[in-house]
Design goal:
Blueprint: H1 23-54, H2 61-68, H3 71-109, H4 120-137, E1 141-148, H5 151-158, H6 160-175, E2 183-188, E3 191-196, H7 202-215, E4 220-222, E5 225-227, E6 231-238, H8 245-261, E7 267-269, H9 272-293, E8 297-306, E9 312-323, E10 327-329, H10 335-340, H11 344-359, E11 366-370, H12 373-376, H13 381-392, E12 399-404, H14 405-410, H15 412-425, E13 428-434, H16 441-446, E14 451-454, H17 456-460, H18 467-481, E15 485-489, H19 494-503, E16 507-509, H20 519-530
Parallel strand pairs: 6-7, 9-11, 11-12, 12-13, 13-14, 14-15, 15-16
Antiparallel strand pairs: 1-3, 1-6, 2-3, 4-5, 8-9, 8-16, 9-10
């Protein structure tokens, strides 16, 4: 008999794999099996010899007397039976080990390895069971979807080990505010879920959500780091909103999206209108994807002038979407959608490729392109830029990439490496909207910027002797002292232009000089600028 033969008797109902069994138990079973087989073989040989020597039938009474009055035969029989009992004992131990192993495997398969909470698969079963109970008992339950705000930033900043410890700390803290009958699960990454049972009123859900938010209000002390982290919560009710698990989860996810759109670190219940909003958003996503793939976007370019205001030195590329229903849409009306739906990388590459291709029409003129934080952090971003420069044939020295302060601060080490690689290609790096964020001198000195652009908000309220004017003057002086080109944007009056030129600003941009133009209009403006018949426009 082999070990696997026990499956025919219902003793073993498992697939044997390495690690399932205690090796000594298997070894003992194997030895007992071999010895038992050997003993029965010897006993059979001896019995055959007795039958031949005494010429008796194997089934006669005389044979039985002869066979079992021999002490050796009796010893063989007793030994064989003893080893058979040993085999049975070891088989029992093996069955028990397999049962325990299967129980442990099921435990591991249904729980998150890091924090020990039920994972998505087990949680699905718990939700199904609770929905079935609600239908039988005619009671209510609620599904909470939780997403940790800014967890990725903390994970990237302090490292994955700190991120893991943060997840465990969050698990412990949130678990303390739940009742024994509620279920808490980690769905993956920074996503959690709570199944609240025996809900009598939506206010029960609101109170639980407030407790969850309150638990997250205190910073986490992890590995010597103080980490502030909120959570956004989406809530869907059963049976009011849905009576099937898939639908309930989808609606809770919609509510979570609304909570994050509303400012994060808050909770939101699912509302019927969210479904219509999702449908509209999905349609917009499909249309934008098609617009990118079918080359239906358009580029406009706003000239950036020399300090005297009489010569175009650069153009800033601005993407527009010529929508079939809504007309010409500015970038801020669809870039957020592109970032949310994973379209920002193909959109950004389309913009860079088209701007570089158009810039070949304007020798001696630089082209500036805004770069999304998500696009900038892509591991192959530098490679993509290099490829597009090669495809379009434009000199890298004529390309400016504009970044905001938040891009470099969110992951300073990565930003520094990428900027060094980009400058090695010959690309100019520009710090956009300078003055509206951290504007730290440390960051200006650390990162390889070639140019800073003064945020337009200072010019909107600037008086020549006011506080904003003093700040602008300081920024210009700082930039010049660091050897950076200083550009002011948002210029609308001659007085602003003259004041900035007096301060030593190198470049000026705004509606005073030109609104965004199509590529053909840039051609015409450059031709007019270079025409001998044109009297140079100057704001001096």
């Amino acid at each position: 008999m082999r070990l696997t033969d026990l499956t025919h008797f219902g003793l073993l109902r498992f697939t044997l794999r390495p690690g399932h069994l205690h090796r000594p138990s298997v070894a003992l079973w194997t030895v007992a099996y071999a010895l038992t087989t050997l003993l029965f073989l010897l006993l059979g040989i001896r019995l055959g010899i007795i039958a031949v020597q005494h010429s008796v039938s194997l089934f006669s009474a005389k044979f039985a007397v002869l066979a079992f009055t021999d002490r050796v035969n009796v010893l063989l029989v007793v030994s064989a039976l003893a080893f058979r009992l040993a085999m049975a004992a070891q088989a029992y131990r093996i069955v028990r080990q397999l049962t325990e192993s299967e129980a442990k495997a099921m435990q591991v398969a249904g729980h998150d390895v890091l924090c020990g909470l039920p994972n998505r698969f087990l949680f699905n079963e718990l939700v199904d069971a609770e929905i079935a109970r609600c239908k039988r008992k005619r009671c209510q339950c609620a599904l909470f979807y939780l997403d940790l705000d800014d967890f990725k930033l903390a994970n990237d900043t302090f490292g994955h080990e700190v991120g893991d410890h943060t997840i465990m700390a969050v698990t412990e803290r949130l678990g303390k505010v739940l009742r024994n009958g509620d279920h808490f699960a980690r769905l993956g990454g920074d996503e959690f879920a709570v199944l609240q049972t025996d809900v009598t009123d939506p206010r029960d859900c609101a109170r639980l959500a407030q407790r969850l938010l309150g638990a997250m209000s205190t910073p986490f002390d992890v590995a010597g780091q103080q980490i502030f982290m909120g959570t956004s919560i989406g809530i869907a009710l059963c049976p009011q909103n849905a009576e099937e698990r898939q639908d309930l989860m989808r609606l809770a996810d919609l509510a979570l999206y609304r909570a994050k759109q509303g400012g994060r670190n808050r909770f939101a219940f699912f509302e019927a209108k969210m479904g219509e909003e999702l449908r509209l958003r999905q349609n917009a996503e499909d249309e934008l994807r098609a617009a990118i793939e079918n080359d239906e976007l358009v580029m406009q370019y706003q000239p950036i002038m020399s300090a005297s205001g009489d010569r175009i030195v650069c153009v800033e590329g601005l993407v527009r979407w010529q929508h079939k229903t809504h007309g010409l849409l500015p970038a801020d009306s669809f870039v957020g959608l592109a970032e949310d739906r994973g379209l920002i990388v193909p959109l950004g590459e389309w913009v860079l490729r088209r701007a570089c291709a158009d810039a070949r029409r304007w020798p001696g003129i630089k082209v500036a392109i805004n770069v999304s934080p998500i696009q900038f952090r892509q591991k192959d971003f530098v490679t993509a830029v290099e490829k597009i420069l090669a495809e379009t044939g434009i000199s890298p020295e004529r390309v400016e990439l504009e970044l905001t302060e938040g891009v470099v601060i969110s992951d300073a080490d990565l930003a520094e490496r990428l900027m060094i690689d980009l400058r090695a290609l010959g690309v100019t790096m520009v710090l956009d909207d300078f003055g509206c964020g951290y504007s730290s001198l440390i960051y200006l000195r650390r990162f390889a910027f070639d140019k800073i652009k003064i945020d337009r908000s200072f010019l909107e309220s600037m008086e020549m002797t006011g506080e904003s004017a003093i700040i602008v003057e300081s920024i210009v002086a700082l930039g010049r002292s660091l050897g950076l080109t200083v550009t002011a944007e948002g210029i609308e009056t001659i007085e602003q232009a003259r004041f900035l030129e007096t301060l030593g600003c190198h470049e000026l941009q705004g509606f005073l000089f030109s609104e965004p133009l199509t590529a053909d209009e840039v051609d015409a403006k450059l031709a007019e600028e270079r025409s001998p018949a044109k009297s140079a426009r100057s704001v001096a």
